[in-house]
UniProtKB/TrEMBL annotation:
GO biological process, alphabetically ordered: nucleotide metabolic process
Catalytic EC class: hydrolase
Catalytic reaction(s) noted: UTP + H2O = UMP + diphosphate + H(+); dTTP + H2O = dTMP + diphosphate + H(+)
Annotated site, Important for substrate specificity, chain positions: 12, 70, 152
Functional note: Nucleoside triphosphate pyrophosphatase that hydrolyzes dTTP and UTP. May have a dual role in cell division arrest and in preventing the incorporation of modified nucleotides into cellular nucleic acids.
UniProt cross-references to InterPro entries, sorted A to Z: ITPase-like_fam, Maf-like
Gene that produces this protein: maf
Protein's name according to its UniProt entry: dTTP/UTP pyrophosphatase
Key word Hydrolase present: yes
Keywords: Cytoplasm, Hydrolase, Nucleotide metabolism
Amino acid sequence: MPDLILASGSPRRKELLAKLQIPFTSVTSNENEDFQHNLLPHEVVVELALRKAKSVSKDYPEAVIIGADTIVVLEQDVLGKPVNREHAKQMLERLSGKTHSVFTGVAIVFKEKIHCFYEKTDVTFWELTLKEIEHYLNSGESFDKAGGYGIQGLGSLFVRSIQGDYFSVVGLPISRLNRELHKMMLFK
Ligand SMILES: Cc1cn([C@H]2C[C@H](O)[C@@H](COP(=O)(O)OP(=O)(O)OP(=O)(O)O)O2)c(=O)[nH]c1=O
């Protein structure tokens, strides 16, 4: 069986991948996350996931590498990770009372084989008060997360409804990934 490597530094992705019960290691790829603004959201996440997986694959050519990327899309604007408190505040004010889409792209690279897919989850927020937003910003939870919130943490209190895969919002659509790996007949 080939080695499995998660090309990610995200603790959430590690926790989710562990559900497959296949031993793996994680290697953080230091690829930049710039993207062309003419791409569609699903193209952005697949491109960034592939960039992460390919960069790790260069150092581990015999392993199966998994890369992933998550973005939040509101009214055609891509919201990545906030750069500071003010940026996070602006994001949360925009997300308040509206439905946005969370896209997570996944790339599986094994030698010359490349397989990519993505999941889209729609998340609707309650109207948020300024007090709620300030309280949330004080928690520090915003800063390493696309859209400036974490559905798995205190951000759960903002969520009115969700349509699609919850785990994809957290960073890795684990049930789909399990199925795709089976289809590739990599870890039977
Ligand atoms: C919307 C949302 C995002 N996120 C996280 C998932 C991703 O880790 C992060 C988006 O940033 P990414 O660039 O996708 O990932 P990362 O930088 O954390 O990790 P790596 O590139 O090393 O794999 O936002 C949550 O944890 N909860 C949420 O509700």
